[in-house]
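We modelled the chain as a single entity of 226 amino acids. Its sequence is:
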Amino acid sequence: MKVAIIEDDKSIINAIQVAFEFRWPDAVVVSTESGKEGIAMVRKESPDVVLLDINLPDISGFEVLRGIRVFSAVPVIILTVRADDADVLRGLEAGADDYIIKPFNYLTLLARVKAVLRRSEKVPLKESHNIAMSSRLNIDFVNQKVRVDNKLVKLTPIEYQLLILLVKNKDTIVPYQQIMEEVWGKPVWHDTENLRIYIRRLRKKLNDVPPNMILNKHGSGYLFKS
């Protein structure tokens, strides 16, 4: 397992490395203090997870995240001192899988890393062939590939998990609470705003705007209409 750290505070990089060496000794940790170098590092090293600081000396972490998402769906956890909801939402909209507010407990960080890795490896629904879920959407459950209008769509692990949960309950409302528990493992948010961001991101990638496939039943949950 390989971890990429993009962080301009060398002391934080060192502390994270020590935490992995102590608790996860088989992990390979690569790092850089530059955002532009971070994008190149992720492309070259193909890590299993990325820990990304928002405040970098050359470009912002948001720009780095957008750059990574051009070529990779690797799970990304944002590390930030910004507890402002707008910054958190901006990170999620840019494609982050999770975020941690600084200062943080390093055991908590490792637990969050394990959680995103578990989600990226989990296959909620497995079949031996492709299935056309609608006239526009086709899913290869074995290889976890999604096509819309016969074009391959790149989804992050979270986006894929979210889509599959809705698909396997097609034409049935999946409550907000159930979505958060099944996709994230627990009700991670006090309200549904962050969930709406993921749904909006998923709809955009599926070219489902205005929505015809993923519908919101206000006050209840979401459903996939076959």
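As a brief sanity check on the tokenised model: The longest helix spans residues 106-121. The CA atoms of residues 172 and 223 lie 6 Å apart.
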